């Protein structure tokens, strides 16, 4: 299923064959929380901007419109008219971070919907049933994502429970995949490594879950309060203990620099709300760093967001026009910035893959980081940046984010 095509140091160039098509890795998944990329971007747009995998959110789709509704309409692929791979998260992250009032037991978690306050119970079996109803290509295991830092004793207990939950997820998904009316009988399950910033707990957990021989593994619980340095250190320790010949997914991370560092440490899959969120605020990524299109200097600028960019927006529209749309509060301005940013991320991943194919990823990474740091007025001192908390996953909490 997963082929390891090429290696450069610890970086991997891989390919995952799925029932919905091939995923070339490293890959950035484009986040469509509630079956849409925020910023009025549709599935057909995703094809035009080079998206391989769309990511949707189990919790949000369970609350609204309801996974049963989506199943009755043929599953998520048909519902949103997207025929390529979809990954659904387990809902665990939202349950643990979004729901203020919650109660964790061995069976699962009781909490209240953030939309209408109704009581919901979700455990491993419920999460698998919802994801099975959605029929995603890849389902994620139901886990507890603890905040960083959390007390060691708590993290230990939580990780043990997450392992027991993973076994239940595996068994339940196997059962669901056998059912006659299942949407996607080939649904894959990825397990998730947890353990906060405690390397030894994480390593032990990685070894335990690797025994289950699942189709893929994720490193979760990062970019939830720890610094960049801590995150990179955790990846350095943990990734070597996950199967080399399985895809590795770093959840909810991050900036282009975070992604380049993750690839170097052996990560295959990434996702983050960053490019779409930034786009909605008029912040666009370029090879010279991030630009704020609200700035007055773009008022009469006839150039595209980035000269030479092949995205559908840069091929047609000027900075001046997009700035005007943003200033006027036109939704089109947001949409253009989101499209460009996702193109930028997807293209960077294609460049990373080409770099790995040709054995020059290290050189590519260095050049890309230097160019982006140099050109960006917003970029602060890199050392200072590394000490700051990693942005990302925490931002993905709400479906109603601005
Ligand atoms: Zn562009």
What does this structure look like?
This protein has 402 residues and is of the alpha/beta class. It folds into two domains: 2-277, Queuine tRNA-ribosyltransferase-like (TIM Barrel), CATH 3.20.20; 278-387, no CATH class. Helix content is 41%, strand content 17%. The chain contains 15 helices and 16 strands. It has helices at 43-48, 58-63, 67-72, 76-80, 92-97, 124-134, 152-178, 199-210, 228-238, 256-264, 274-280, 319-327, 331-357, 361-375, 382-387; strands at 2-8, 11-18, 21-25, 27-31, 54-56, 86-88, 102-104, 109-112, 119-122, 138-140, 188-193, 216-219, 248-250, 269-271, 283-286, 289-292. The strands form four sheets. An eight-stranded parallel beta barrel has the order 4-5-6-10-11-12-13-14, surrounded by four helices. α6 (124-134) packs across α7 and α7 packs parallel to α8 (199-210). The radius of gyration is 20 Å and the shape is globular. It starts with a strand and ends in a 15-residue tail after the last helix. Mean pLDDT is 92; it is low at 377-381 and 393-402. The structure holds zinc ion.
């Amino acid at each position: 299923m997963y082929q390891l095509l090429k290696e450069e140091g610890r970086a991997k160039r891989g390919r995952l064959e799925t029932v919905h098509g091939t995923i070339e890795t490293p890959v950035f998944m484009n986040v469509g929380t509630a079956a849409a990329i925020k910023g009025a971007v549709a599935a057909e747009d995703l094809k035009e901007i080079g998206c391989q995998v769309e990511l949707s959110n189990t919790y949000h789709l369970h609350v609204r419109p309801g996974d049963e509704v989506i199943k009755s309409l043929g599953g998520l692929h048909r519902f949103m008219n997207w025929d390529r791979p979809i990954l659904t998260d387990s809902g665990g992250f939202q349950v643990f971070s979004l729901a203020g009032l919650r109660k964790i037991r061995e069976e699962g978690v009781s909490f209240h919907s953030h939309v209408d306050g109704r009581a919901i119970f979700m455990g491993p079996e419920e999460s698998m049933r919802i994801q099975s109803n959605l029929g995603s290509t890849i389902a994620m295991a139901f886990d507890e994502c603890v905040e960083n830092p959390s007390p060691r004793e708590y993290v230990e207990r939580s990780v043990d429970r997450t392992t027991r939950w993973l076994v239940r997820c595996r068994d339940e998904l196997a059962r669901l995949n056998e059912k006659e009316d299942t949407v996607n009988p080939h649904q894959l399950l990825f397990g998730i490594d947890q353990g906060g910033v405690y390397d030894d707990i994480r390593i032990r957990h990685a070894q335990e879950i690797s025994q289950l021989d699942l189709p893929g593994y994720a490193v979760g619980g990062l970019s939830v309060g720890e610094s960049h340095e801590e995150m990179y250190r955790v990846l350095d320790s943990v990734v070597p203990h996950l199967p080399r010949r399985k895809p590795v997914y770093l959840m909810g991370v991050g900036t282009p620099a975070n992604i380049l560092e993750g690839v170097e440490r052996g990560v295959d899959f990434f996702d983050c709300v960053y490019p779409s969120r930034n786009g909605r605020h008029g912040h666009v990524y370029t090879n010279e760093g991030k630009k704020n299109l609200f700035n007055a200097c773009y008022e009469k600028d006839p150039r595209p967001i980035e000269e030479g960019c092949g995205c559908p927006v840069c091929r047609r529209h000027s900075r001046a026009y997009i700035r005007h749309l943003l200033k006027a509060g036109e939704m089109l301005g947001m949409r253009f910035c989101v499209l460009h940013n996702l193109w930028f991320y997807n293209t960077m991943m294609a460049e990373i893959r080409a770099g790995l194919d040709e054995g020059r990823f290290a050189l590519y990474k260095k050049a890309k980081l230097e160019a982006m740091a140099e050109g960006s007025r917003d970029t602060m001192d890199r050392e200072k940046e590394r000490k700051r908390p990693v942005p990302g996953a925490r931002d993905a909490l709400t479906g109603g984010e601005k």
